[in-house]
Amino acid sequence: MNTEYYIKITQEGIDITNRFFKAIEILKMNKKIRGLQTFTRSHNLNRWNMVTVRSDPEHSYLKPEWIYHLCKDYGVSLKWIFYGTGSFYDNETYD
């Protein structure tokens, strides 16, 4: 593969991506979801795309709708996802 076509993601973007996947693991530990496959199936998302982003966050885009589902459906704090601060769960609802 020709590396000149790789997308370079900023460190902030990489950190957000890493927190997204950490959130999936926390939700799994808290028994809110069974895992990544359950998350992708329940939201009709392409699991292969997520696996690619997780394995190469320096060159792959995290889709905003993935974060949307975490925040809306599982109560994960957007502030935690974006900045890594505050509590993991948000006390607001977005219905």
Instruction: Provide the low-confidence segments as ranges.
Output: none
Q: What's the number of extended β-strand segments? A: 0
Q: Please give the radius of gyration in angstroms.
A: 14 Å
Structural class: mainly alpha
Count every helix, treating DSSP H or I runs of 4 or more residues as helices.
Answer: 5
Question: Can you describe what's shown?
Answer:
By secondary structure, the protein is an all-alpha fold. It is built from 5 helices and no strands. The chain is globular, with a radius of gyration of 14 Å. It starts with 10 loop residues before the first helix and ends in a 12-residue tail after the last helix.
List its salient traits.
95 residues, mainly alpha, 5 helices
Question: Topology, please?
Answer:
Layout: H1 11-29, H2 36-42, H3 47-55, H4 64-74, H5 78-83
Question: Brief description of this entry?
Answer:
This protein is an all-alpha fold and 95 residues long.
